Amino acid sequence: MSKKEVIEKKTEEILTPIAEANGVKVYDVEYVKEGADYYLRCFIDKEGGVNINDCENVSRAMSAKLDEDDYIVDAYILEVSSPGLGRALKKDRHLNQSIGEEVDVKLYKPLEGTKDKEFTGFLKEFTDTTLTISCPISEEEDEDMIFDRKNIASIKLTLDF
Fold first, then answer.
1. Could you tell me if 100 and 147 are in contact, meaning their C-beta atoms sit under 8 angstroms apart?
2. Residues 6+ away with beta carbon under 8 Å from 104
């Protein structure tokens, strides 16, 4: 396991009971370097969405616990926030929660035989290796598109304005 993966896993273990005590759940944890700075991002969620007080309460408790455990050697910035409306679906649990939802799928390179790298459809199913979305091609007909997960750059919930 990489340093990043170890930190994210340990952070999620620490964050889970803190989140539950504050009436929210852990959506995701990221440990990333952007420029010269490291960021430890904790995404929390709850039915109806999180508010600033939820983020503040979790952030304070999480900061105290991180100071106590002190397992991250790099200087970092702690951020606690909602995953947002157009949330990224990175883990199987995110995909499972989003079955039937409209998603945007972006590929690393165009689909063979096309110039298209971006697709929108309703998440139908997924396996360890594939992801299937249902794309409307007419008012009466949908077409299932199956993507190899290793070719997917990102999957996000579609933002409808």
1. no
2. 86, 118, 119, 120, 154, 155, 156, 157, 158
Structure-derived torsion over alpha carbons of residues 66, 72, 75, 79, reported in degrees to the nearest 10: -50
Q: What is the pTM of this model?
A: 0.80
pLDDT along the chain (161 residues), means of 10: 94 97 96 96 94 97 95 96 90 93 95 89 95 88 92 92 67
Q: In the structure encoding, which two tokens stand for residue 120, read together?
A: 């929108």
Question: Which residue has 């408790």 as its token pair?
Answer: 61
Degrees to nearest 5, angle at CA 97 with 108 and 138: 65
For residue 67, give the 3-state DSSP assignment. helix
Residue-level pLDDT at 161: 67
Question: Taking the C-alpha atoms of 104, 108, 110 and 112 in order, what is their torsion angle to the nearest 10 degrees?
Answer: -110
Planar angle of CA 99, 119, 26, nearest 5 degrees: 40
